Amino acid sequence: MAEPTRWVTDTKPGHSEWYVERFRRMAAEGADLGGEARLVDAMLPPGSRVLDAGCGPGRVGAVLHERGHVVVGVDADPVLIEAAEADHPGPRWLVGDLAELDLAAAGETEPFDGALLAGNVMVFLAPGTEAAALSRVAAHVRPDGFVVTGFHTDRELTLEAFDRAVEEAGLRREHRFATWDLRAWHDEADFAVTVLRTPAAG
To answer: Which of 55, 112, 53, 41 is nearest to 88 (CA)?
Structure first.
């Protein structure tokens, strides 16, 4: 990988293991961990191919798999991928840097109908790679497919910088909401869910 991600540089040793155990505990306690997946599922025909980009330990991709979609999850952190494989068999989980994503090299040559970057993925990318990551993810999505992102806007990545990265990646912003359950966007919101559209064919 060209540069370490903020997930590596901005967190303490043992953070990945803590993160895995946190979500395992929340799942055991019956917490609702599928909100992002419900939105993405509503945007897709049954049995679609979905790219879970920055999948972490697999909580979102697992729900999409349970709903009948074909899911491939990618994350730069091998600890998180190991947890996804252990806890959520079914999807394909791969270690990879989103800014250099090439799933054809891993045998995934069929385009995806949609992709998501949930769980603050955008703010944990290596600084300056946001446009490259969006571009590489979008390159794996069919024409006129979607890429949906969600992240806190009070982190290192500003919404203005994100929108510039979207434009640089050749994507079109279609919708923006303040939450994954589609509360209306407003300028004081501290979270942004953005639906992006890939260029149509031709």
So the answer is: 55
